[in-house]
Amino acid sequence: xxxxxxxxxxxxxxxxHPDVFQNxxxxxxxxxxxxxxxxxxxxxxLTGQTPSEFINDLRMTYAARQLVTDTESVQxxxxxxxxxxxxxxHKLFRQKxxxxxxxxxxxxxxxxxxx
Length: 115
Hints:
The chain is mainly α and 115 residues long.
């Protein structure tokens, strides 16, 4: 949105890179140079999401793409997303996509030989 502050738009765009979202909301907030509370208030008022919700959305979008295009294990993909706790990863993935990561892979991955 052109009306959003530049610092926030830039940070949200840069946060799409795994090197940033692996660090969670702290990675996003660190890009802004602002206090976490200020970033959180601003994001919530402009996007309706907290920094954590935004980052988790990016992480689960990335995970879904990896599940379909790569043959890496679900655990490795979770680690790439910055979520080593598999129960938490599964919970976030189900919230975003409505099915487990493995079922998502089975449903959408085509012509890739599973290891």
